[in-house]
Design a protein that fits this description.
By secondary structure, this protein is mostly beta strands. The chain has no helices and 17 strands. Strands 1, 2, 3, 4, 5, 6, 7, 8 and 9 form a nine-stranded antiparallel β-sheet that branches. An eight-stranded antiparallel barrel has the order 10-11-12-13-14-15-16-17.
């Protein structure tokens, strides 16, 4: 169900942005105090930690500008739909805002024009330092948006995590009463496949099922842990989509 419009306003801080351009094969995922990755046709062309507060200018509508190893990314972010919101305890209060990306990628002297969907993620509160974090987005081909966020203590399994989720819906969005995520990993501990079971609060709305698999990704080892970032292809009850599935594991890198 939609958030109560009478709830007091909460100051949200942009902590992550992602964009996917199926035509060029570009995938960008940036998380403040986490990992930054730029992937083109499955190859990582830039990867570096993003400092805390590194995405703050996006809150004021600033363009996104990045240097890659052999070029640059310059894009503007414009509104592309109503945001969805969802909240938990340790997970904090979240908002995901669909945006339209317009600009260009320059790679090894080649200029690639871009016009594609993206998502800007903001939150108030959120996981404590040292927590396990999972962030999952599905940008559906029909323009819909699904977001899932989970957090738990270091070493936690899915059963020990708090998981919250919401999906866009005509006239607003729907928060799920129960969100179940099951993940398969490769030998290096990187997410390769996942399934979703999302149960709305209302019995009048069907349970949503989904399955996804990794297309590309990278691993970053930070001072306080490891971040695995992957682009997934998803199918949600027959509706196709793309989006990031990122897992941050605390501990010595």
């Amino acid at each position: 169900m939609n958030a109560d419009p009478a709830e007091p306003a909460v100051d949200l801080t942009v902590f992550s942005v992602e964009l996917v351009d199926p035509e060029s094969g570009l995938f960008v995922s940036l998380t403040a105090a986490g990992n930054g990755a730029v992937v083109l046709d499955g190859d990582v062309i830039a990867a570096a930690p993003i400092p805390a507060g590194g995405l703050d200018p996006l809150s004021a509508g600033a363009p996104l500008s990045l240097e890659t190893e052999h070029g640059s990314l310059e894009v503007e972010l414009g509104p592309a739909g109503e945001p969805i919101a969802f909240a938990g305890g340790p997970t904090g209060r979240r908002e995901a805002r669909p945006v339209e990306i317009a600009g260009e990628l320059v790679e090894r002297g080649r200029t690639i024009p871009l016009r594609c969907p993206g998502v800007v993620h903001a939150r108030a509160g959120g996981p404590e330092p040292g927590a396990l974090r999972r962030d999952l987005t599905v940008m559906l081909a029909d323009g819909g948006l699904l977001c899932v966020a989970a957090t738990g203590p270091a070493g936690a399994g899915h059963d020990d995590e708090e998981t919250v989720a919401a999906i866009s819906h005509p006239g607003g969005y729907i928060e799920f009463e129960e969100a179940l995520v099951s993940t398969e990993y490769d030998g290096a501990g990187r997410q390769q496949r996942a399934t979703l079971e999302l149960r709305p609060e209302s019995a009048d709305i069907a349970v949503l099922h989904g399955a996804g698999s990794a297309i590309a990704g990278c691993t970053a080892r930070l001072a306080d842990g490891t971040v695995n970032t992957a682009l997934f292809h998803w199918s949600l009850d027959g509706h196709e989509g793309l989006g990031r599935y990122e897992i941050t594991r605390p501990g010595a890198a």
